[in-house]
Amino acid sequence: MTDHVKARRYSSPKRAEQALQTRSAILKAARAVFVERGYAAATIPEVARAAGVAVDTVYAAVGRKPVLFRLLIESALSGGDHPVEAEQRDYVQRIRQATSAGEKIAIYAAAIRPIQERIAPLFVALRDASAQDAKLAALWREIAERRAANMRLFAQDLAATGELRTDLTLDEVADVVWSTNAPEYYLLLVHDRGWTPERFETWLADTWRRLLLA
Questions:
Q1: Is 109 helix (H, G, I), strand (E, B) or coil?
Q2: CATH number of the domain where residue 116 is located
Q3: Which residues bind DNA (predicted)?
Q4: Which of 105, 118, 116, 117 is CA-nearest to residue 204?
Q5: Which of 26, 60, 78, 176 has the maximum number of C-beta atoms within 10 A of its C-beta?
Q6: Residue 76: exposed, middle, or buried by beta-carbon count in 10 A (0-12, 13-18, 19+)?
């Protein structure tokens, strides 16, 4: 093996790591810019300056503004720099493995708190921009519908324990969870009323147990 080939093989992982670091810096900077400025006022040059990279680097690493914003939303839901399907997320798998409804609720409420800490400010930007942008309005509806479908799966998982109230349909259970874990609800209590995220988590789990379990 020549020295040239060796150098090329050894440098490839380093370049890949640098690319990931650049992408992470762009996402972190973009989040701050979108939250502070809102979607309409935020610009890619601002994101590039905040990340310490060239504008072309932002386009090459992530994409244009709508693509970047969608990636921020998806990554915030997943808890990393890359989107992860709901079924593959760690807390979803732990919910499925839990045997009691109370344990499933506690796991999900604990997962909701960091998700809302990441996603709620971005949802404000998305909500405000969706009134003027058809594509963002479609993204808003898509995420709301996806959440509703996931809440139906959660309701089915709770029902399998035999511990749900018998006077509630699965759709009603799903709708209760869907509405109370929404970013808007989190913002009302944490940002507007001054609750701590920890208090929100405890209250959410307690509310679900009281409302949904027999």
A1: helix
A2: 1.10.357.10
A3: 43-62
A4: 105
A5: 26
A6: buried
Q: Are residues 129 and 70 in the same domain?
A: no
The amino acid present at 119, given as its one-letter code, is I
User: How far is residue 101's CA from residue 85's CA, in Å, rounded to a whole number?
Assistant: 23
pLDDT in tens, 14-37: 777 888 888 889 999 999 999 898
**Structural domain boundaries, residue 139:** 85-214
Q: Cα(124)–Cα(187) distance, rounded to whole angstroms?
A: 9
Q: Can you tell me whether residue 161 is helix, strand or coil?
A: coil
For 122, residues 6+ apart whose C-beta sits below 8 A from its C-beta are 31, 34, 35, 72, 73, 76
Q: pTM here?
A: 0.81
* Average confidence (pLDDT) over 71-90: 79
Give the chain's domain count.
2
List phi, psi (to 5°) of 164.
-75, 155
